[in-house]
Amino acid sequence: MDHEADAYRTDLMTITRFVLNEQSKYPESRGDFSILLSHIVLGCKFVCTAVNKAGLAKLIGLAGETNVQGEEQKKLDVLSNEVFVKALVSSGRTCILVSEEDEEATFVAPSKRGRYCVVFDPLDGSSNIDCGVSIGTIFGIYMVKDDHEPTLDDVMQPGKNMLAAGYCMYGSSCTLVLSTGEGVNGFTLDPSLGEFILTHPNIKIPKKGKIYSVNEGNAKNWDGPTAKYVEKCKFPKDGSSPKSLRYIGSMVADVHRTLLYGGIFLYPADKKSPNGKLRVLYEVFPMSFLMEQAGGQAFTGKQRALDLIPEKIHERSPIFLGSYDDVEEIKALYGAEVKGK
Ligand code: AFP
């Protein structure tokens, strides 16, 4: 990369400019989506700053039970949730919010209501905060079905009905990856400008990858197809090289690497957790949407992930997502099991 040329680049494609460009393709558009997105971006910037300060705050003793004013310090995931809920409600463009942090869905008051439903995990991977591992925010966006009083049915829709999905990764840089259903684009926060700049246009996942990503500590409880697949990754019988294992345990970071380098990310069902661990609405759906938009696939062990119809807002599902050919292999193994029964 030519860093010097980069430093002097003058035509910057910010995320706002990018979304407004997209919007101009639809003359009937009222700009509601751009406004909603600008509020999500604000939430991401806030959380990015808070995550960056987390280690320092601890070091200088601000993060105990109470802060200097004697007020109770909020945990970062609780704080992030509050920031996103307030930003989304104040956008005036949302009607239902489903957050990983809140047991119940939030119905926005009629005076502030818009047409979008946002499902999100404000700080996914938060158990990794204290050791400085990359964590992130994941979100998906639906539109209310018709002109009616919003109900939970408006969010209990298959992932394929999402209008947009994305994540923001708080890592060595802060990267926002977004799809509005026409490919996937990545933006990196320039801290000096406070703007997300298009750095990864039109991301396409390699058709086949060299990495598998799974919590192998659960192997004892896996079902046959998952066990066979991972065995194949390690001991391929077709003369190909074994795949490398990479597992961070923070979905945004594991999926981001999978998207850029190719390969497969698995969180399968096991005997202890028959539905896996990851949540359908704000983990499985947004990441599956991005994978498909980048040319990959996402599969639950039974069906295309985006065809799933959730029955509960915090429902879980097994998930296998990544490069097209790698997911084909796991689909074949599950298919063979069904035929053998
Ligand atoms: P936390 O938010 O509790 O850290 O969980 C993270 C997560 O939901 C997801 O980001 C990871 O992919 C997955 O759990 C890791 O789960 P295991 O620790 O069971 O491997």
How would you explain this protein's 3D organization?
This protein is α+β, with helices and mostly antiparallel strands and 341 residues long. The protein contains eight helices and 13 strands. The strands form two sheets. It has an eight-stranded mixed sheet, with helices on both faces. Strands 10-9-11-13-12 form a five-stranded mixed sheet, with helices on both faces. A hairpin with a 4-residue loop joins β7 and β8. α2 runs antiparallel to α3, α3 packs antiparallel against α4 and α5 crosses α8. It is globular and about 60 Å long. About 4% of the residues have low confidence. The site of 1,6-di-O-phosphono-alpha-D-fructofuranose has 12 residues, from α6.
